[in-house]
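#onboarding

Welcome to the new folks! Below is a worked example of what a typical request in this channel looks like: someone posts a single protein sequence, and someone else replies with the predicted structure as tokens. Don't worry about understanding the tokens yet, we'll cover that in week two.

Example request:
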Amino acid sequence: MAAESSKSEIDWTKIREETLQDFTLAALPPTLELPALPHAVTQFVQKAKDPKVTVKELSAIIATDTGLTVELLRHVNSSFMGLRHKAGNVQQALTLLGQRQSKSFVITTGTKAAVRARKSRLINQGAFWNASLQKALFAQEVAGLLKADPMLAFSGALLQDYLLPVVTNELLEAYIQFVDARHEQPVDICEFERGALGWDHATAAASLAHRWHLPDDLVCCILFHHYGLRILAHPELKRSAAAAVALSALLPDQLRQHLNGLDILQKLEQKWGAFSLQDLAETVDRKQEELGLGVRNDFPLARRCRTAASDAAAYNDGTLNKVAVC
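Example response:
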């Protein structure tokens, strides 16, 4: 299996255009106030597209945003990164990370900042980003099994639900209906949204990310994150970072977006010998601890998976029999 690093293998722009087609953010309620990326992030993303851009020019952009500067230096100098040399300023930090990893960090950090600035009456932001980090670390590990891009998988999984705190707050009554009826309706959240709202948060988030000029591969990871196991049958995406993100979306979170997600992942083990849900969960918990974010993980993923393995009823929607896995 060839690695995903070959850009010629997947035409992300074509896939994004074909999937989004005529959808625009105008389909959303006019009263819905969408978040905006910090100006420094927008500038950085645009400038990074220039093949002649220098580290000095990029660092000057980051330096205009104090919060972004602090987060960048904290990240680069963390024990998790394990870098031999410490960064004393933004330019050194970007040099140590490299442009591609720096861009990924700036995008994810900037997007989190934009969403954290908004209040949510339905979602606890701390628990939300803790679950998002679990999904990101999980997707990173799955990408390794698929020989796909682990950095893209991490970023895509971390940001897959970034719009949920905003839309669940602004459209609270609709999402309360989803939460209240969760045990009676096995549909995932996107199916509910399409029925109740006429659109879903994956499509809306991907469209907004495209408006922000984020890379098309990242946009596609967000766009396809609720495809579940269907993505493993997609002719182009089945071994991509987008597939790793879609599998991570089956993990539990506050809203229980997919009622039977863990059950489906456990069934996947029977078809894919290299995929061990418990081993992956334990790796995720260990790496989350190594990050040293100072946030207690009250819901270790490995514990959730053990509980699901012992308590979950048999569940099979027939999808596995249609999927060819590596």
